[in-house]
Amino acid sequence: MKTYLVTGGAGFIGSNFISYLLKSKRDVMVINVDKLTYAGNLENLNSIKEDDRYTFVQADICNKGAISKLFKKYKIDYVVNFAAESHVDRSIKNPTIFAKTNVVGTLNLLNCAKEAWQIGDSFLLGVKYLQVSTDEVYGALGATGFFTETTPLDPHSPYSASKTSADLFVKSFYDTFKFPINITRCSNNYGPY
């Protein structure tokens, strides 16, 4: 059985991911960590809350003790980081909370996963950290009308700057330690909520 640590799993995208994962795979366990701020709503997970393979933990991803405890308690194979402060307008009013959650929180998750997964100069086979980012890191949609993985990063708001910073920390863990990562930069998401 593979164990997923999903952060921000009570939000729109995270809750849909968890529901999909538990409904489509039998051999998985999901630990959902969410601080339950303005965007988190446990009602999004009513359809799976009684599933024995699902555990909810109310915690802040910036809390090293809480996150480390989860890595010690469970054999976590994958981290999927949806947790984030979002919305450009909110970031303009209070950029500090965006830096704390999106940058420091991501760095805390990386450090905790690295501590749990590292074996000498390598990592446990099959583990992976997935950073769920945003297309906002690329800035305004240019003349071509699309972004690719090679489009230069060009954030224009505190929100996009915080997500870009988090992405660069994730990439630096690969470049420095060969830490197993992927980064996805979704565009607008839609679906049931």
Q: How would you summarize the topology of this molecule?
A:
Layout: E1 2-7, H1 12-24, E2 28-34, E3 54-58, H2 64-73, E4 78-81, H3 88-93, H4 95-117, E5 118-119, E6 122-123, E7 128-134, H5 158-177, E8 181-186
Parallel strand pairs: 1-2, 1-4, 2-3, 4-7, 7-8
Antiparallel strand pairs: 5-6
Helix pairs in contact: 2-4, 4-5
Radius of gyration from CA coordinates? 16 Å
Q: Which architecture name does CATH use?
A: 3-Layer(aba) Sandwich
CATH homologous superfamily grouping: NAD(P)-binding Rossmann-like Domain
Work out the count of structural domains: 1
Strand order of the largest sheet: 3-2-1-4-7-8
Please state the overall shape, judged from the principal axes of the Cα atoms: globular
DSSP strand tally:
8
Strand count, sense and closure of the main sheet? 6 strands, parallel
N- to C-terminal distance? 28 Å
CATH topology group = Rossmann fold
Annotation field: number of helices:
5
Average pLDDT taken over every residue: 94
Helix and strand run: EHEEHEHHEEEHE
Which CATH class?
A: Alpha Beta
